[in-house]
Amino acid sequence: MMERLQKLIATAGYGSRRWAERLIEQGRVEVNNKAAQIGDKCEITDKVKIDGRAIDLERYKEEETKVIILNKQAGVICSNKDEEGRKSVYSLLPKESRWVMVGRLDLNTSGLLLFTNNGDLANKLMHPSSEIDREYAVRVLGQVENEDITQLTTGVELEDGYAKFDRVVFGGGEGANRWYKVVLKEGRKREVRRLWESLGFKVSRLIRVRFGEIRLPENLKANQYDYLKPGQVGLLLDAVKMPNKPKRK
To answer: What is the mean pLDDT of the chain?
Structure first.
């Protein structure tokens, strides 16, 4: 069956659809020895190359969808390579599959990260149209007033557009630093920090504690991972209206 090239690349676990689209736009993808174009469709058996190297679109075709949850430590990067030699989240994962990250966390943010062998699932979970909740525990320096909470949940104009929290709840603390739980439905770069900073507050700690229905387990130590149970994987598939079954042959 003919399918869009970026979808086949993502389904094979090489990266998200957006990543594949960027490579196609940059002229780095070939199909049957011809440069690929956005919108191209092909068969899973066609010969596809990225940067001149052949890839295998069939390699995960019969594999069951798997999802890993990782408790990222602050200071660990979310890239595959780093010129400064810092530890990468990918070095912490098992080598059995090609794992696609579901959203990133910046260098100084810790907590829940999801990875899956199903690129299509990763793409749908990250897409703004899915409106998946992201919940964070935030330690804020400064006196937060009720009008600040109202502003944060009504909306703030940032340099890349309008943004807001869906919910802000006081989480405890005394003195200059207070904890809050915040929820939003998108994953723009440093969005949580930028929303607080727009009102003059400094975020001294930021931890992602929930993605959709998946919560960070209390017993999962920093930089350790675990596999989600089939029922939890099913919740993620249901959230983006994907069939809860092994990937197609």
So the answer is: 91
Residues 49 and 82 grouped into a single domain? no
- Of the candidates 16, 34, 55, which is a domain's last residue? 55
pTM of the model: 0.75
- For residue 23, name the pLDDT band (cuts at 50, 70, 90): very high
One domain for residues 173 and 194:
yes
Per the CB < 8 A criterion, the answer to whether 74 and 62 are in contact is no
What is the pLDDT, as a whole number, of residue 249?
A: 40
pLDDT at 62 > cutoff 60: no
Residue 97 resides in a domain:
yes
Q: Which of 82, 106, 160, 238 is catalytic?
A: 106
Residue 106 annotated in active site: yes
